[in-house]
Amino acid sequence: MSAELFCDETVYLPATSVRELLISSNEESLQVVQEALHSGQRRSTPSSSTNVFTFVRETEPETQEISRAAEVFQTSLQVLGERTRHKRDVPAPGSREHLDPSQCTLVTINTCEPLNKYRTITGQCNNRHNPLWGATNIPLTRWLPAQYEDGQSEPKGWNRGRLYNGFQLPPVREVSQKIIRTRCKWTDHVYSQLLMEWGLYINHGLLSSPRSTGDCSTCKNKHSCFPIETEDPETVAIGCMPFSRSKPACFVAVKPGFDDIQAMQRQQTNSISSFLDASQVYGNTLEMQYFLRDLSGRNGRLAVNDKYIDYRGRAFLPFVANVPSRCRSEEFPVDCFSAGDSRSNLILPLTSLHTLWVREHNRVAEALAYINGHWSPETVYQETRKIIGALHQAFEHFIGPYKGYDPTTDPSISNVFATAAFRFGHAYVGPIIMRLNRKFQEDKRFPNLKLGDAFFSPGRIVFEGGIDPIMRGLIGTEALANTADKLVTEELTEKLFNRQNTIDLASIDLQRGRDHALPGYNDWRSFCRLKRIQTLDDFKHVVSDARVAEKILNTYKSLDNIDVWLGGLVEDLLPGARNGPLFACLIGKQMKALRDGDRFWWEAEGIFTEIQKAELSKVSLSRIICDNTNIGAVLPDSFMYRKYPSGFVSCDHIPWINLEAWREAKGQALEVAEYPGIHVDPFQPAEEEEPLTCLLCDGVGVVSPGQVLADVDPEELEAADSLHCRPVDGDGGVPGSLLLPVVHNQLSS
């Protein structure tokens, strides 16, 4: 047999032609990105479904600049590919180097301050040898390679007719309707609803991938739009649901060994720091950090609302800078609150947790300033921020024994964790937001809310009892259970955000995984050293509900085509856990990396003294609730569920931090009475002093002497012997942050 000679007949363009082609491709990409951005600004309205998600995830200017540069770079690659796809004259190998990558790079960090005892607000320099690990605006890491249809940027399902293992991927809306959505959810008799909401709150402190902002009202795949196909025209007028792709990331070699393929592939950004550092409270940029601080007070505190306080004088979050905002409505003319994360207004329980932690910061800051009178406001702020960050970490007890900081561990958030595994909580969201009174029964004045009525509604907190009814609802209500046949409530798959157009969160979660080109369920089982599912019988051993297993196979046709988010959700739960084996593996791996790769982890050597660590280890979320609400009885562990009053104890019996552990030698002598450390109120009047008249907000937020909110429970007032408040100033006014009841226990309910 004679051998055949194969020759490469491709004709490479000369360098000058290559340069012209690259320049014209870059110019075209700039035009495409600009047109998409401007069309989104022109056509997007406050009520449009696309704009809702833009509103939820408002990005910082620095992130917007980086994302725009990344979009131009990626679009240039796409334009270049389209121009040369059907031509035999192509740029020579390596000519893509002429695309200017400097337009899409992060600021290089040459050195890190060796003696800095506090975290940077961006997360940079946590690891001195790899200063961008875990920092803001870096790509989500890939534990397995992306599976783009063109190898570079096209999502899975982008090209209609493309076969996977011999079959097309099913439309995500079809998967949602056939397998995921449910009208009913079982309750969980072990945990309270606080567990789910805490998971959402922590999620928002770890990851945020900005969305493209162009006009995606079309049903065609183009540029940044990847619409969700649907066959239910009754609820979706245009035949699809708008879907904006995640913005691409600027490539940065945060790890050695990254190759050109990874550099050219579309990656997604984590715009916030990866660390469990309470960034939800403090922000992720210097600008946001300064905006959230009470710099004028020179007291180390965070800013609070200067217009409204609750009926006991407790603070609310400050308003956003740009008003009027989209939270304002005819029913509640109240603007959005501002917090360290832009999603703080998303839903009332989340807003309540943000409020809780701002109050806690200011409590601790006030006590530390009194204990160490020689501290500067900056020291008070940083030491308080350090404590609050530690408290966020101290609640994480399920990732094995701590062996110390490991500088070789990359704590950066992974794509599969952000896009699939840590979205398991969507299956635990209920259709009702419970609001309970002091007896943990439905509050007749502020009845329970449908989920759709609880989005972007800070006015309900201001005018409907503050955060107390919501927090009672979280600790006094059973969590929902996740079962394979009842996954995500229809409030999320049909009525999300209570808008006229259907927005299906389950479809969005599935489409997001395809947008990010995540490998399938079986590939991730192999990654976690779990057995691949090869037959229906194999699947039934993992998903004990045989009907669900059969329905999934009938929908996907191939077990290798199952989306990782769905596969992880339907697995049987591990004993004592709320996840199956796959998500337990992925979440456990990520959380362990967040702990071991964090130089400032609260248990790491030299971060806190042994005495301080002993104090921090006492704290529970129950204590935080006691100290920052008007709730006086809780369970020792508020993540657990017991029907009130079984197991509930007075806040007097919940352990607290003694902040004396933070006293420095030059500090003033602190007179510790009944409550040490954090409970000391240096402004408390002496017992023989006459009670002072309280200033309380009336129903429209006007502060006036002796006036009581209409929604104050008369039983609570009768239970209090007297109500002491701080003196008013010379003009008869008093900042809301200074109204703190002294007779705390008598007023607790």
Provide an overview of this structure.
There is one protein chain. The protein is mainly α and 749 residues long. Helices cover 33% and strands 5% of the residues. The protein is built from 24 helices and 16 strands. It has helices at 15-43, 49-56, 61-84, 172-180, 194-206, 260-264, 279-282, 286-292, 348-371, 377-394, 415-419, 458-463, 468-475, 490-493, 505-515, 521-527, 536-542, 546-556, 564-570, 581-596, 610-616, 621-628, 714-719, 744-747; strands spanning 11-12, 89-90, 138-139, 181-182, 187-192, 228-229, 240-241, 269-270, 432-433, 449-450, 478-480, 488-489, 633-634, 649-650, 695-697, 703-705. The strands form eight sheets. A two-stranded parallel ribbon has the order 1-2. The chain has a two-stranded antiparallel ribbon with strand order 3-8. The protein has a two-stranded parallel ribbon with strand order 4-12. The longest helix is centred in the first third of the chain and has 29 residues, at 15-43. The N and C termini lie far apart (93 Å).
User: What best-fitting shape do the alpha-carbon axes yield?
Assistant: globular
Summarize model confidence as the mean pLDDT.
81
Task: Please state the CA-atom Rg, rounded to the nearest Å.
Answer: 27 Å
Strand tally is 16
N-end to C-end Cα span: 93 Å
Major sheet description: 2 strands, parallel
Q: Which residues form runs of ≥5 with pLDDT under 50?
A: 1-13, 42-50, 88-99, 667-749
Strand order of the largest sheet: 1-2
Helix content: 25-40%
* Approximate strand percentage: 5-15%
Number of helices, where a helix is a run of at least 4 consecutive DSSP H or I residues: 24
Structural class: mainly alpha
